[in-house]
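Hi support team,

I've been running sequence recovery on a batch of backbones for a student project. Most finish fine, but this one hangs at about 90% for roughly twenty minutes before it completes. I'm not sure whether the input is malformed or the queue is just slow. I've pasted the structure tokens below so you can try to reproduce it. Let me know if you need the job ID as well.

Thanks,
M.K.
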């Protein structure tokens, strides 16, 4: 047998153990180690002693939002509101009067002066339309020129327009961001395609070969009702460079005729697609953000005795949507961050599963951030998949500690204890909320330190091997793809990253780089 390629002179971590070479035929692994080396091949690739791992798989990211946001005014490095205003003014000076000035990535926890407000933005960019997205995506600040165009008399349920001294500050939280829709929605499909192209180039350079997009088609994170068309177009034109599973915003599911239940037209649901582009779970938002202090908590945020956050939709309608999607055969991924939201979502899953049991449902809780011990037990016994973001502890950890107080930190973004409880653990970034480079995340999952260096529930740290397994096998499992992805074994897709050294050594994690990335057996990125 002649294979397409043999990759050799490497250490290959297959997910189960270590071997030395890998042979590829028709995009799949056909042999490993000595068996691979002995095959004749159309090409032999010397990996120069590199360390091969299964391609990284980001189980929750926002690829279109990230890719398009590369054009925004970057605000994540700002440390005061004045720096934010300066950045806005600098960009505004380059644009025609009346243009949009769009910024993203600010975090009020990191800004002297807190959230930017409309008065500051009015001064920074007179005559312009300004909107700045919070790093969480759960809130937006606008200037007065934008505010004047919003229908403030009809603020959607599950959101609020923040006021100070009786007038709006410009801060729109959660569903109140939908007030901007008449001005900004939908994004042209061609722009979404360009965003996907830019994002996927960067992903390949970071060793990512598969992603799951956490919500298309509607809701707070959707770009356009035709978003799947953007993915198809990106795929057809070769600019979608990583395998993608798209979650569908719950708001676009609807009743279908006859007894077809609840879903999309044609009865389309989870699982349709192929190795490159697949329809994944229905994505539903229960609540908001922890650093933004809008998520639904059992007890108030630290220092804010009247604030326990809120739900994005009424609790009954959340349970009803979960029940209907479950009955119609969807996999469900529900965003729940606060401990009260997690309780309500667990109740809803438990009721749906009791009413119509389904083996291997793989329903998920996205973020699953503040997880009390009793709820951890319930999560595991229901067979649910928590989908926490390891890197949040670093970039958002100090803000999360401020919101929770020390006593609740041990419940926050738990990793080790969900594995110990028997759950399968995927790994993800929620990019662009934080830097989504997997090598950074592996270090954070192993070290559990905040940006200021403080330990953050260090008992939740993973071993390097557990972290790597989460970023490969765990994520594949979370989207029913473990038969094709997640480990390097004969029969599976030949998706892998070539690293400069072993990520299994904690001490080496800081110095690692990605040397190459292969999807379907073909090196599509080389450093
Ligand atoms: Zn997200």
């Amino acid at each position: 047998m002649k294979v397409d390629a043999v990759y050799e002179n490497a250490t290959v971590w297959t997910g189960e153990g270590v071997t030395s070479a890998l042979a590829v035929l028709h995009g799949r692994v056909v042999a490993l180690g000595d068996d691979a080396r002995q095959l004749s091949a159309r090409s032999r690739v010397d990996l120069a002693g590199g360390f091969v791992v299964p391609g990284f798989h980001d189980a929750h990211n926002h690829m279109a939002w990230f890719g398009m946001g590369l054009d925004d005014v970057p605000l994540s490095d700002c440390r005061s509101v004045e720096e934010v205003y300066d950045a806005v003014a600098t960009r505004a000076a380059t644009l025609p009067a009346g243009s949009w000035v769009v910024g993203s990535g600010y975090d009020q926890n990191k800004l002297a002066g807190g959230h930017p407000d409309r008065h500051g933005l009015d001064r920074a960019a007179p005559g312009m339309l300004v909107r700045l997205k919070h790093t969480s995506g759960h809130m937006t600040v606008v200037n007065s020129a934008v505010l004047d165009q919003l229908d403030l008399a009809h603020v959607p349920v599950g959101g609020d327009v923040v006021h100070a001294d009786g007038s709006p500050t410009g801060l729109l939280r959660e569903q109140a961001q939908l007030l901007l829709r008449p001005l900004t929605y939908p994004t042209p499909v061609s722009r979404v395609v360009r965003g996907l192209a830019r994002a996927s180039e960067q992903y390949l350079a970071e060793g990512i070969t598969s992603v799951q997009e956490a919500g298309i088609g509607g809701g707070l994170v959707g770009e356009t009702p035709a978003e799947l068309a953007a993915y198809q177009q990106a795929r057809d034109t070769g600019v979608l460079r990583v395998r993608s599973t798209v979650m569908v915003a719950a708001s676009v599911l609807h009743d279908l005729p006859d007894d077809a239940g609840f879903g999309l037209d044609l009865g389309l649901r989870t699982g349709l697609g192929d190795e490159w582009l697949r329809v994944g779970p229905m994505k539903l938002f229960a609540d908001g953000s922890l650093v933004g202090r809008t998520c639904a908590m059992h007890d108030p945020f630290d220092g804010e005795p009247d604030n326990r956050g809120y739900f994005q939709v009424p609790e009954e309608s959340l349970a009803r949507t979960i029940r209907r999607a479950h009955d119609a055969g969807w996999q469900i991924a529900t965003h729940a961050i606060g401990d009260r939201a997690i309780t309500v979502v667990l109740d809803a899953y438990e009721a749906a599963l009791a009413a119509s049991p389904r083996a291997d449902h793989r329903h998920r809780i996205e973020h699953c951030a503040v997880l009390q011990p009793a709820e951890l037990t319930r999560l595991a016994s229901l067979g649910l998949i928590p989908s926490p973001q390891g890197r949040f502890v670093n970039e958002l950890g100090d803000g999360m500690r401020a919101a929770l107080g020390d006593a609740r930190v041990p419940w926050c973004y738990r990793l080790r204890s969900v594995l110990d409880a028997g759950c399968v653990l995927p790994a993800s970034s929620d990019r662009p909320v934080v830097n989504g480079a997997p090598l950074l995340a592996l270090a954070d999952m192993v070290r559990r330190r905040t940006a200021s260096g403080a330990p953050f529930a260090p008992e939740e740290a993973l071993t390097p091997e557990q972290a790597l397994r989460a970023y490969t096998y765990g994520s594949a499992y979370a989207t029913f793809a473990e038969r094709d992805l997640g480990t390097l074994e004969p029969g599976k897709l030949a998706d892998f990253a070539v690293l400069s050294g072993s990520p299994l050594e904690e001490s080496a994690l800081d110095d690692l780089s990605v040397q190459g990335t292969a999807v379907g057996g073909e090196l599509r990125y080389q450093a």
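--
Follow-up from support: It reproduced on our side and the slowdown came from queue contention, not your input. Residues 47 and 404 are 47 Å apart (CA to CA). No action needed from you.
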